[in-house]
Design goal:
about 45% helix, binds nicotinamide-adenine-dinucleotide, binds zinc ion
Length: about 375
């Protein structure tokens, strides 16, 4: 297996993300390096293809783990206290030396990580992300949690995994709509940290890969090995970006980690105004369009770079215009309620040029309202 190892470290934590095709079949030995216990609980959801689950179970068993598999509902529904309690009830055979393995997207990762954080006050957790979003974003950084009726991710804990295993093979069955969600965060990483990656993504024009088109080939991966490699590189590159930010600013202190919120202030507002009917990546895409408009005005972003961002998002099948039915005032209400507003002063992430981002205190509510109106 051709794989890459990326270090994620900071105050009190150090672990590796392994990226490469076929790694799922090596789960057992990889986890064995970190866990001495006899038992492993796999938490996964009912949508994750059986072959993925089976290959992880077989590999763990071969590494002398006694495996329990716990299946949760797919998607956001899994992130509930009810599920936490139900899962905990099935963990009675586990002890402090056992390991919890989350096999799935960000929902499974957040839930399984939270269970690992609180079971016996914390046992080892391994993230095996199976969506593009979870590979490049949610599996890295140690944020875990579940939702309450009052809001998303309200109950949580910081609990870094012992290991992350990202196998590009897992993406073969992922619906295009879900791939897109990951691409929104990848574009975000490019804008805040990696102008070269932005250019690389932009240069893959819609028909560069023939009849199947951009989405059919580059996004989805085809039988062609070179495209698979291109996407594995992309996954590794994005993990490195998130790892670097998380490593320098584990606790949101220097403000570095806040840069990951680029496009998310307006994005979250749209998510809430749509009553979570729109997916996160789609909302972040619109949020980035708004943030770029604000950046032209407040951070000197060249207008042609703003247009390049919109063009790339559109190429990736992400929205750049907001549906008329979504209420603009409702978006503004949601943004105002957002916790990032401190005593009336807005901390807003802007980009002065693609590849660089910073926090600005000069952005006003009027700027945001105008940018939302222009969507
Ligand atoms: N902890 C963090 O730092 C962090 C960061 C970003 C997002 N998140 C959280 O991540 C969650 C979203 O994660 P997500 O986008 O991965 O969605 P998800 O986990 O809800 O998965 C989306 C859908 O894809 C299915 N799926 C997953 N892998 C598949 C595969 N290989 N083949 C076919 N279907 C598959 C799932 O069953 C689900 O139906 C949200 O709850 C969000 O709050 C957390
Ligand atoms: Zn996001």
């Amino acid at each position: 297996v051709n794989s890459e190892k990326i270090e994620i470290c900071g105050a009190g934590f150090r672990y590796f993300a392994h990226v490469g095709r076929g790694l799922l079949g090596r789960t057992g030995p990889l986890i064995r390096e970190h866990v001495r216990g006899q038992r492993a609980a796999i938490i996964t959801d009912s949508n994750i293809p059986r072959p993925l689950r089976d290959s992880v179970i077989a590999s763990l068993a071969a590494a002398r783990f006694r495996v329990t598999t716990i299946v949760v509902p797919p998607g956001e529904d899994a992130k509930s206290l009810n599920e936490v309690e139900r899962i905990a009830g099935e963990l009675s055979a586990l002890d402090r030396t056992s390991v919890i393995v989350g096999l799935g997207g960000g929902s499974v990762g957040d839930l399984s990580g939270f269970v690992a954080a609180i079971f016996h006050r914390g046992i080892p957790h391994v993230q095996i992300p199976t969506t593009l979003l979870s590979m490049v974003d949610s599996s890295i950084g140690g944020k875990t949690g579940v939702n309450l009726a009052a809001g998303k991710n309200l109950l949580g804990a910081t609990h870094h995994p012992s290991l992350v295993i990202a196998d590009g093979h897992a993406l073969k069955t992922l619906p295009e709509r879900e791939l897109r969600q990951g691409y929104a965060e990848i574009v975000k990483h490019a804008i805040i940290r990696d102008a070269e990656m932005f250019a690389l993504l932009s240069s893959r024009a819609p028909n560069a890969f023939g009849a199947e088109g951009f989405r059919g080939s580059f996004l989805k991966g085809t039988a062609s090995g070179s495209l698979d490699v291109a996407r594995d590189d992309l996954i590794a590159r994005n993990i490195r970006i998130k790892a670097a930010i998380v490593s320098t600013d584990d606790r949101d202190i220097s403000g570095e980690r806040a840069l990951l919120n680029f496009g998310h202030t307006v994005g979250h507002g749209i998510e809430r105004a749509s009553d979570f009917g729109m997916s996160h990546g789609d909302c972040v895409s619109l949020g980035m369009v708004a943030a770029c408009n604000i950046s032209v005005k407040r951070a000197g972003l060249p207008p042609e770079q703003r247009d390049e961002v919109s063009a790339l998002l559109a190429q990736l099948g992400l929205p750049t215009r907001l549906d008329a039915e979504i209420s603009r005032p409702k978006i503004m209400e949601a943004i105002k309620r957002d916790k990032k507003f401190e005593g009336g002063a807005v901390r807003f992430v802007v980009t002065p040029r693609i590849g660089k981002a910073c926090l600005s205190r000069e952005v006003t509510m009027t700027d945001i309202r105008q940018a939302v109106a222009a969507l």
